């Protein structure tokens, strides 16, 4: 575990070198907060509610979900993996005394935690500057459970992205597939709109998938809703983690035989 921790720390340090990227992410977080204030401030004026959301709870949801979304820095897992396969440099990961999946997941974790810290600062500052009325209704144990679920969910999404990236062994360029996956994931996790605004049947289906428990449920817990779903959410995420671990292992063993990169 120590070597995986070292990989995560190194990835975070490398991203600190590219300060412009970090600044852009902070500006994106602030822009999302401002956008939420403008749109929902108009729709939920005069004490109106939508799917049980008041203006303070809706804005709080967007602030929190933006922070959690930065922890989902998982698209880069598939992008880096597919790029190394396409460029013929993946062979170095086959020679390192570390599992390729663990290596890429550790890099993702290091970068995600870094960006989440700055996103949290940007969101907090934006809320103060623009006078966003926040409505946190959560206990300390629920906060810990929500953060734990978010990190577990981020790991599952990184595994999913890793599985998609492995397809580059067969199809070489999977950038379009990764883009589609990223957009669908952003919607299914509730990062674009709260899933409570969707039809009940759609929400029922999403409860069986890991995306529901990555951003949406932890964010809802922070505003005092959905805490009774935490236990079931951990079970669903653990089941998906086990499934994706087996699937990625099988795909890696089978598809890497097609690889003819540099040094192989």
Describe the sheet with the most strands. none
Number of strand elements: 0
- Helices and strands, in order, run as HHHHHHHHHHHH
Mean pLDDT: 78
Determine the N-to-C terminus distance: 27 Å
Helix amount, in percent? over 70%
Shape: globular
Low-confidence stretches: none
User: Radius of gyration, Cα only, in angstroms?
Assistant: 19 Å
Instruction: Tally the helices.
Output: 12
Strand content: under 5%
Structural class, by secondary structure, is: mainly alpha
Give structural notes.
The chain has 264 residues and is mainly α. Helices cover 72% and strands 0% of the residues. The longest helix has 30 residues, at 100-129. The chain is globular and about 65 Å long. The protein starts with a helix and ends in a 9-residue tail after the last helix.
Topology:
Elements: H1 2-17, H2 19-43, H3 55-70, H4 75-87, H5 91-95, H6 100-129, H7 140-166, H8 168-171, H9 175-188, H10 200-206, H11 216-222, H12 230-255
Helix pairs in contact: 1-6, 2-3, 2-6, 3-6, 3-11, 4-6, 4-7, 4-9, 6-7, 7-11, 7-12
Précis, in short:
By secondary structure, the protein is an all-alpha fold. It has helices spanning 2-17, 19-43, 55-70, 75-87, 91-95, 100-129, 140-166, 168-171, 175-188, 200-206, 216-222, 230-255. Helix content is 72%, strand content 0%.
Keywords:
globular; 0% strand; 264 residues; 12 helices; single chain; mainly alpha
